[in-house]
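Researcher: Go.
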Amino acid sequence: MRFLLICFLFTAILSAQKRIDLSIQYVWAESGLTMRAEGNAEGEKMMVIPFGAEVKMTGEWGEYLKVKAMDGVRYETENGTSIGEPYLMEGEYERVEYGGKTGYVFNGYLFYCPPEDKGSRSEDFETWMTSVIGLPDTILFEDDTGKMMGSRHMYLFPNGMTLTYEEYEGGGSTTITFPVGSIANGFTVANRFWNVDQAVKNKKDFNGQGGIIPELLKILDDGSLHFQGDMSETKIMVAGGILIIYSAGGC
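Model: Structure:
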């Protein structure tokens, strides 16, 4: 039964890939996204497009570049040194239309899902999904196997996104798939709702004498992001064009 449900899940995702309109994207850079007259870093600045704004893609591309989205960090503990790598977000300058003007923006901070619903910020992932995407139209799998063994809940949303919750004694995990997406998209979503950059932001508060190390980044050979901490982990990967975000924690 589970195999059939998984087959249905991936069929639904692949079908959604063909339906998604990528000509409309939204700004996920919280400080806004600079529009330039030309498709390179030297292009004249035209404006800053605000967070959450909708832009129309023209299909014209500029230069490839990397943007530092997160610094590296080093933790010294009684057990040794732990290092988190910096994250350089990859993308291109892409021409867009916004506010009656046309120019180039860095597409690493663009995503086809809006970051908020009509200016109302969602503080958790599930609220965001239901507000900007809608309630799930299908429950793919629901299995309560007892308090000790845990349970799994899988939902399919109207745009082909899926959400899987797994609960077990002492912890749980959440897996989200988007029919289309990049590692950059996964980072912006994960950082918005799971604060994967907290190891950098909260370094000054760390107590090296037994303090719990937050998630530190390791970039894998295929470009996937693996944030590993003492009590939790987050993985961001792309397979077959499908964006996958996995987050787990426990005690």
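Model: The radius of gyration is 19 Å.
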